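Notes taken during the Thursday session

The instructor put the following on the board and asked us to keep it in front of us for the whole hour. The protein is Glycosyltransferase. We were told not to look anything up and to reason only from what is written here. First, the residues (493 in total):
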Amino acid sequence: MKAESHDQLNVLFLPYPTPGHMIPMVVTARLFAKHGVSVTIIATQANALTFQKAIDRDFSCGYHIRTQVIPFPADQVGLPDGVENIKDSTTPEMLGQISHGISMLKDQIELLFQDLQPDCIVTDVCYPWTVESAAKLGIPRLFFYSSSYFSNCVSHSIRKHRPHESLVSDTHKFTIPGLPQRIEMTPPQVAEWERTKNETTGYFDAMFESETESYGALYNSFHELESVYEQLHQSALGIKSWTIGPVSSWVNKDDGQKTNRGHKEDLEQEPQWLNWLNSKQNESVLYVCFGSLMRLPHAQLVELAHGLEHSGHSFIWVIRKKDGNENEDSFLQEFEKKMKENKKGFIIWNWAPQLLILDHPAIGGMVTHCGWNSILESVSAGLPMITWPMFAEQFYNEKLLVDVLKIGVPVGAKENKFWTSLGEDAAVGREEIVKVVVLLMGSSQESKEMRNRARKLSDAAKRTIEEGGHSYNNLTQLIDELKSLKISKALAG
Ligand code: UDP
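Then, after some discussion, the predicted structure tokens were revealed:
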């Protein structure tokens, strides 16, 4: 490893432990290191294990990057060892315990900030208190926002104007004020804490307040995807931001990196899903995945299984299992066996190497819950999507895909509900599923046009991270700006 020069920029990254936040932030940290910055990532043990291989590899290539591990207070919050990530929560109580454990790390982290004396901290938007830590140290805090500009603009408008409150019925639509395009929603699609004030509203208010007090924001998005909303974000919220995405395709260039990302186990040498996909025609397989947190209710799994089967199209489906439901187990085992026999479907249990799968030529589209990372990964692969939002800002992202970018077919999801508080019913029936799968995977003009638009965005996604591209320039300009700040501070001191 090269020796660290004393004028080298030293940046500390603090990711929030949920895959949708941590994966892109760790990748961003690696990107900074690849651009000559000395990088430290703070994480608890079980979380660090999910990305440490990539860090070791970068380090052995000569980059200044390391992980600073801190202990998670599992005992104190009553959790078993190793349960340190939001994705491990299956009930509201567990979610509360994990979140509490994360909040207890504050003092340890502040001490680390003081010890390590970084020139800048990049912290997840979910750590509003780091604004004050940065102020105490006299350094900039950048916050990492892991969703779209569009969703942040919508959320800001809804919190400011509360347009859903003037409607007499939940089935009526309202228009989101202040957007350059007419975007309509129904009240139940609004994020729970924005729809009505509840115990989490205060937490989110603090987060949004801290945004305006920060030096600026890092967005894992790209100019060509949502520049109108990047501008609106600047004018309406007044927050300086740098668009540096899609970070995942920028850093994870080879298959090994794509495989291990966000997961500690190695991929088998010749994975069965790969052999299965290799036997399929180009663009003939639908990839179905609801992100890292969602476990569908049994009734919904049944509807989806029937919908996929009756659509007549081939599919790969990632299912996160619920423990101890025998009905579910026997239904899914039966379904898996049948799909193996007729070669129509392949099930991956719990965790799939999503980047690798999306890049396979046999994949022709994705069913997504509209998590921002999955959207970016599908766009990068040039794939149109069936949109099936579940919770948080996913319904806003759906609007971006369907109404703005026109690369998404909505399945018709109606209600925004956290994954830990879902009931036992199916929100979407098999007939709707068949309809949208046939539309997306068929050869209609509508589907061809969506596919073409998705391909163009994929080309733009590739260009933006190459030397001279928007995202590339934004990152290098930001690093230069942070270096200038460091120099001015040294001269002033
Ligand atoms: N992911 C994956 N394999 C899985 C499930 C998820 O690699 O089986 C990754 C996915 O590629 C994405 C992240 O986990 O990078 C999920 O983030 P997203 O914003 O899409 O959704 P969330 O999990 O936050 O709801």
